[in-house]
Amino acid sequence: MQVKINRMETEQAKIVLQETAGLAIITIHRPHLKNALTANMWNQLAETALQVLENPKNKVLLLRGAGEQLTAGSDIKEFNQMTLEEAENAFVTMEKTISTFESLPIPTIAVINGPAMGAGLELALACDIRVGSEKAKLGIPVGKLGITLNNKFAQRLVNLIGPSMAKDLVYTGRILKSEEAYRVGMLNYVVKEKDLDRYAIRMGNLVASQSPASLLAIKQAVQECVESAPVLWKGSTPFVDANDFPEGIAAFVEKRKPQFIRRTKK
């Protein structure tokens, strides 16, 4: 087994790539902070995903998180130290990383043992298959933070669970437990925690045994079927609201309820 470790800000924050027998396994390792990703880690995650393609033996990519998390998404406390422009750029970087996973020419499997929240949920949805344990929890509670989802984010939700359910998750901020997430189609498989890694590897080996041409063809064909939303960046809906985002982030850091002010368009 070849193991490559990319260390991030500290020894406790890193992206780990393991390659063995046709499987590439990327692990987000920052368990002391729920595997939350800094802007730098999002960049490293994208670089690691592309690095997987450099080894022609890699046929399937598994994405997992250390401990009982996939990832809580972006590091919210880091946003508290950014300007609005810096925060917006961090979200653009995050979306580019998620899109990198989405467009990889090999099958991708997200292994979810615990929460996958916000951008972490979007990262999981960008994978082709999602396998979760009974501890899996999925949600996108951005309403408390003043984060505004553009159509690319919304599309991933709508493609799987439909427009009403997608709006429901943001409107209420509710978190789906494993069985409900499976029922609405956000998880493909639910297995016991003790069996999760073994099951995911077995699933990866099964997928890797199929024709590479068939796998690539169905991945591209499905993407063409579901891709309808144009990419919106500058001049369109931003990721951060100039008023609600600073208040939402401050409230998160200060551990209080945000005090949003209702505004109407003129």
Number of domains: 1
Report on the biggest sheet: 7 strands, mixed
Number of strands: 10
Question: CATH top level?
Answer: Alpha Beta
State the helicity in percent bands: 40-55%
In percent terms, what proportion of residues is strand? 15-25%
The CATH topology is given as 2-enoyl-CoA Hydratase, Chain A, domain 1
Count of separate DSSP helical elements: 10
Could you give the order of strands across the largest sheet?
1-2-3-4-5-7-10
Evaluate the radius of gyration: 18 Å
Identify the CATH architecture. Answer: Alpha-Beta Complex
Q: Round the mean pLDDT to the nearest integer and report it.
A: 88
CATH superfamily: 2-enoyl-CoA Hydratase, Chain A, domain 1
Structural class: alpha/beta
The general outline is globular
Descriptive key words:
seven-stranded mixed β-sheet; disordered N terminus; 266 residues; 10 strands; alpha/beta; 2-enoyl-CoA Hydratase, Chain A, domain 1; single chain
Short description:
The chain has 266 residues and is of the alpha/beta class. The protein contains ten helices and ten strands.
Task: Explain this structure.
- The chain has one domain: 2-enoyl-CoA Hydratase, Chain A, domain 1.
- Helices cover 42% and strands 18% of the residues.
- Strand 2 and strand 3 form a beta hairpin.
- Helix 5 crosses helix 6.
- The termini are far apart.
- The N terminus is likely disordered.
Topology record:
Layout: E1 2-7, E2 14-20, E3 23-29, H1 39-52, E4 60-65, H2 76-79, H3 84-102, E5 108-112, E6 115-117, H4 119-125, E7 129-133, E8 137-139, H5 151-161, H6 163-172, E9 176-177, H7 178-184, E10 189-191, H8 196-208, H9 212-226, H10 244-254
Parallel strand pairs: 3-4, 4-5, 5-7, 6-8, 7-10
Antiparallel strand pairs: 1-2, 2-3, 8-9
Helix pairs in contact: 1-3, 3-4, 5-6
